[in-house]
């Protein structure tokens, strides 16, 4: 099928584009900059110029496609205001695409995060968070899933806090960046809180499977590692960079501090059983050995 994809040149999106092209699909990739356009073209995709704020471009891209995969998000986590703007921009974009797809029966795959459930591992049956700095994304995804009643084969792939490739990406990547800047490989609290993770190449396979096979209104978990203690993640980062490892205040991570401090292990048992998804690539702790010095 011809697939319109947003965010197709990022760490996750580039692997999704390659996975789609490698399995007989064609790709229309949204590209905001000249650099992104060149990246998409070099990968073999057709370029649609524009960004998430260009609603008419999004509608036109969806109109030309047999299905849509949405991955784009402005990852400016420097302030609560920036996060609020990014969430609002995404909500408007998803609504515009959803309106274009209504009544078509075409697939619409969106992404969100795995939920944190106090005292246990979260599953695909758990609701997304409706509180916290990124809660607005939960409302947007819920609205997309509700399109199932309006003739859209909408589905959500929930990503863990770290989607990694070659030692970079996700929350672990943020820990690495802060460690380089501060000289300490830190973790909030006692570091016992667990973060789930997945290799980007494994996540890409799940996006394809959801696009091809998932029923309307369904939710899936792209989780390979159920949950690594954050202090273990920080320990690998510290060893690779030759830095001390220590607990640091949650405020170190700005608006994301409360999320960083939360225990949030997650399961993908249902996803593996129903869609036949089998992660095959290195775990997070293994992949962090690829951090560049």
From TrEMBL:
Residues 3-218 form the NAD-dependent epimerase/dehydratase domain. InterPro entries: Epimerase_deHydtase (IPR001509), NAD(P)-bd_dom_sf (IPR036291), NAD(P)-dependent_oxidoreduct (IPR051783). PANTHER family: NAD(P)-BINDING DOMAIN-CONTAINING PROTEIN-RELATED, PROTEIN YEEZ. This is Nucleoside-diphosphate-sugar epimerase. Signal peptide: none annotated. GO terms for molecular function: aldehyde dehydrogenase (NAD+) activity. It comes from the Bacteria. GO terms for cellular component: cytoplasm. It comes from Saccharothrix variisporea.
């Amino acid at each position: 099928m011809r697939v319109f994809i947003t965010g197709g040149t990022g760490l996750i999106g580039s692997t999704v584009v390659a996975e789609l092209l490698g399995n007989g699909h064609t790709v229309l990739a949204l590209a905001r900059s000249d650099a992104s356009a060149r990246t998409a073209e070099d990968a073999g995709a057709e370029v649609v110029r524009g960004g998430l704020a260009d609603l008419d471009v999004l509608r036109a891209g969806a109109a030309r496609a047999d299905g849509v995969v949405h991955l784009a998000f402005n990852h400016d986590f420097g302030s609560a205001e920036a996060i609020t703007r990014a969430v609002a921009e995404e909500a408007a974009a998803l609504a515009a695409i959803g309106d274009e797809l209504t009544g078509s029966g075409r697939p619409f795959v969106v992404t969100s995060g795995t939920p944190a459930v106090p005292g246990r591992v979260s599953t695909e049956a758990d609701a997304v968070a409706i509180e916290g700095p990124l809660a607005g994304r939960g409302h947007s995804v819920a609205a997309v899933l509700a399109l199932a009643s309006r003739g859209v084969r909408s589905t959500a792939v929930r990503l863990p806090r770290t989607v990694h490739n070659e030692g970079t990406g996700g929350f672990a990547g943020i820990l690495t960046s802060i460690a380089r800047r501060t000289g300490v490989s830190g973790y909030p609290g006692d570091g016992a809180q667990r973060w789930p993770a997945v290799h980007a190449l494994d996540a890409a396979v799940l996006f394809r499977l959801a696009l091809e096979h998932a029923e309307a209104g369904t939710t899936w978990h792209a989780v390979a590692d159920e949950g690594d203690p954050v202090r273990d993640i920080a320990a690998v980062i510290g060893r690779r960079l030759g830095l001390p490892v220590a607990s640091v205040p949650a405020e170190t991570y700005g608006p994301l501090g409360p999320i960083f401090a939360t225990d949030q292990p997650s399961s993908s048992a249902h996803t593996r059983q129903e869609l036949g998804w089998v992660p095959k690539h290195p775990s997070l702790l293994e992949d962090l050995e690829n951090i560049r010095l």
